[in-house]
Amino acid sequence: MGRTAVIRNSSLVPLALKRAGRPPREIAAQLSEQILGAAEALFLEQGYGATTIEQIAGQIGATKRTIYVRFTDKAGLFHAVVKRVFDARRPDLKTIGTDRSVDERLNDMALRVLSYALDPDVVRLFRVVTAEAYRFPELNRMIEGQAARGVAWAVAQMLEEEVRLGRLALDDTALATRLLLSLVTGAPTKEAGRGMKPLTLAGRQRWVKGAVALFLDGARAAGPSGDRANEA
After folding, report:
1. Fewest CB atoms less than 10 Å from the CB: which of 35, 65, 158, 206?
2. Residues 55, 4 contacting (CB under 8 angstroms)
3. How far is CA 162 from CA 92, 101, 107, 175, in A?
4. For 159-187, how does the pLDDT look when each residue is reduced to its tens digit (9 = 90+)?
């Protein structure tokens, strides 16, 4: 934990920071990206507590002041890294159209969400947050907020569409979203977080099929006779 992570991304090269005046916009944007890239590598390698602003600055040949001008403090920089990691890997659920059956649609969604949750960098990020939770409880709130604004929101929108289409009967979409995501990602992500071997693609498909089927058993809209419909 004491050693400094080595950044292997060839795009992270030190910038010439000795120019007088404000750097051009493109150089400023590049510098912000370099700071985030160096911070991401160090946070995921060493954890939050062991990573210092000095180390991040040293990776790109910058000064602490250069970082603080763009990010208020280490927590603010970590928040930006969390957003960066999630945004880069978050699945696009908008492409799953309503022309498919509810089973197919939810299975596709769930497989994408599980693959996202088991992405190696996402797993490492959750480990960092878990390890530091007792000292920095705000990190848990931060990462939960990012998740709520991303995948959970998209899943809730999908479930609401299915309710409007008459294919699902849900009294509380927010609760249903949490239950579905728990079924899909709960155990696999906990196992990955403990260092167990992640599910293979075939294993993920079997898990998702079972989780979605269990969810749909209690969520299908009733047919004309009052029985739960097998198909929309």
Report:
1. 65
2. yes
3. 18, 10, 14, 15
4. 999 999 999 999 999 999 999 999 999 99
Mean pLDDT of 210-224: 84
Report d(CA 81, CA 121) in Å as an integer: 11
* Secondary structure (DSSP) of 153-179: HHHHHHHHHHHHTTSB--S-HHHHHHH
90-219: what fold? Tetracycline Repressor; domain 2 (1.10.357)
Does domain 25-84 sit in CATH 3.40.50.2300? no
* Band of pLDDT at residue 142, cut at 50, 70 and 90: confident
What integer pLDDT is reported at residue 87 of this predicted model? 87
**CA–CA separation, 109 and 61 (whole Å):** 42
| H or E stretch at 187 | helix 173-193
Structure letter (DSSP) for residue 148: I
Domain boundaries, the chain: 25-84, 90-219
Query: In the predicted model, is pLDDT for residue 104 greater than 90?
Result: yes
Instruction: List CB contacts of 23: < 8 A, sequence separation 6 or more.
Output: 31
Amino acid at 153: W
